[in-house]
Amino acid sequence: MDAESVILSLINSRNNGIPETEAQKLACETLSRSEWHDGLQNLLSSHAIIRESTDFTPFLRVATTSYADLRLSGQQLMVYRVIDMVGQRGITEDELVKKLHGKNFPIKKDIKKSLKSLLEAQHVRTIQSIRNRKEVLYFAAGVEPTASLTGGRWYTKDKDFDSSYVDQIRKSCLRFSRDHPNDHVTSQKVYQWLTTKGKESTIAPDVEDIAQVLFTLELDGVLRIVGDHIRSSSLTKSKDRSRSPIEREYTLAKQVASPPFFQ
């Protein structure tokens, strides 16, 4: 199998792309560094794959579609390629104009005209960033923005913080603690408990969401990390605190007799 095939197979194995460093490590189990570099550059230059940065981490993913299949004009294709290559980060109209205005687009309004036609043909789409309500970002169709832009499950479709969703997770975490008094609370246990409840549960958070809510309950003094009460000094960390948030075990804090979320 040639270098391009090895690299493309690795990237294809991940639906949402793969970190470039991880892809290189896996590929170099069978390829030399020069073969990796040459194969990667060939795939990038042929637009078979795209390199993008997600929260400053270079990611590789397969191009969403063949550019030839889109049947775009030359100017439309140039605009689309820029949008497609930024991937999950998205790009504003002003950023597009700065990148493209010049020899190929001497008139700025031609960029906007091409952008409008791509939107009408549904080759690209827009979202409003939660970081700036006035900021509109463009994405290639089929590309999911990063959670840092959309807020993920924490925000509604109207980009409002979903306090109801958070409150339901808090209630579920505390209810698990109440129903399992002899068991420690972990994000994985709460997740499995909610999964087994099936239709009884009105929410479907992932393990990471639950871990974040458990941490807020710790900060509020409602839960404490198991073993945290036996620290010999404020400079000594409990064994459990060194674990990742998903692995931490909690129990109800002694001072909390009746958490309000049980009502």
From TrEMBL:
<protein>
    <recommendedName>
        <fullName>DNA-directed RNA polymerase III subunit RPC6</fullName>
    </recommendedName>
</protein>
<dbReference type="InterPro" id="IPR016049">
    <property type="entry name" value="RNA_pol_Rpc34-like"/>
</dbReference>
<dbReference type="InterPro" id="IPR036388">
    <property type="entry name" value="WH-like_DNA-bd_sf"/>
</dbReference>
<dbReference type="Pfam" id="PF05158">
    <property type="entry name" value="RNA_pol_Rpc34"/>
</dbReference>
<keyword id="KW-0539">Nucleus</keyword>
<dbReference type="GO" id="GO:0006383">
    <property type="term" value="P:transcription by RNA polymerase III"/>
</dbReference>
<dbReference type="InterPro" id="IPR007832">
    <property type="entry name" value="RNA_pol_Rpc34"/>
</dbReference>
<keyword id="KW-0804">Transcription</keyword>
<comment type="similarity">
    <text>Belongs to the eukaryotic RPC34/RPC39 RNA polymerase subunit family.</text>
</comment>
<dbReference type="GO" id="GO:0005666">
    <property type="term" value="C:RNA polymerase III complex"/>
</dbReference>
